[in-house]
Amino acid sequence: MPQITRRSLAAATAVLLGATALTACGSSDSGDEAGGGSGPVELTYWAWAPGMDKVAALWNAKHPAARVTVQKQASGDDLVTKIITAAKAHKGPDLVQAEYQALPTLVSNDALADIAKEVQGVEKQFAPGVWQQTTLGGDAVYALPQDSGPLMFFYRQDLFKEYGLTVPTTWDEFAETARALKKKAPKKALTTFSANDSGLFAGLSQQAGAKWWTFEGDNWKVGIDDAATRKVTDFWGGLVAEGAIDNQPMYTPAWNKALNTGEQLAWVSAVWAPGTLGTAAPDTKGKWAMAPLPQWSEGENATGSWGGSSTAVTSDSKHKEAAAKFATWLNTDPEALTALVKESGIYPAATAAQTSGALAKAPDYFANQPDFYTRAAEIAKTTAPAAWGPNVNVAYTAFKDEFGKAAKARTGAAFGTALTKVQDATVADLEKQGFGVAK
Q1: pLDDT by residue (tens digit) across 334-345?
Q2: What is the 3-class SS of 320-334, one letter each residue?
């Protein structure tokens, strides 16, 4: 991906999200960097993760020269809108928790600072595919990775044994496993295709090599309807069309029941799946196992990601160095990372933390797989790069609408049409907002 700078990102930028009233306090105007001035530096951190105030308290106890105050925020588009609004009024906080896919939007709106000089040497503590999401493919560093969601394959170990199924290592084997199960147990399904969470489809496309947004000069190029994503679309659409898998959405009572009763034997999900399964299928605790995501070709070793966020320093911060030091501590210090897992329930992006501290022991739900986090850490290292753009929210909404229709239609043609419509909607929105779009 070509180097992206704030200047080039902003060349044809318009604010993508509607402005909202600015209600939060801005960053402190007093003091210089940590250790300077007549008193301690006061840093404000907007974050949505639970327990972040408790994690910050650990920093405050050991760093009296730079005190961090956490202000709890909503997540998703609401926070992105609020950050942009604050940036335009020059009243933003010092730090923000930002999802990876939101970074291009925030950078293009001049809301984030480049902290490359302040975090030199930190890159090696993260998987390359995760780190790339905070640099947008260039030399600037707009955030530090905080948590990640590498994709994996979760399956009912007992039912796989009962029906004589083998854990698939390729997507072709996955399809054959789905068909074999239908022949042996017609009322059961290996899994479902769900259109109500765009992140999973984005992660699957990422694994296949998709680059949904790239940058050419001062123009964005949208590649949602590229060969890699169409391969993913045809694969899942084909399985739905032939009835080899289910087509019901995730997170519904019906979906929960299917998992809990064994009507659905597997789920392609992320490392955070144990928490969801514990709620959706409490009766199946200890019966699931985790394996690497199936590959498109034998011998490949890549996964996608579903979810994850970063810690960014804002352009408004008058204490850039101190804020960057806190962001580095938060996402690389062993004590901080252990606290993030315990208090905030995240899967840390820092590779060293993925098998230590609070993650040294498998999740209770997967007590039958004691090496859960050891295997997860190996999978996380293979995370493929992602390519996000400034209107991910539009693409995700279009996906839910169009692929939702395709899932109900249960035809391969409907899935192909849906992908084209997502591409068209994303391009049209960029053009409407005033971005240059490469054809």
Answers
A1: 999 999 999 999
A2: HHHHHHHHHHHHHCH
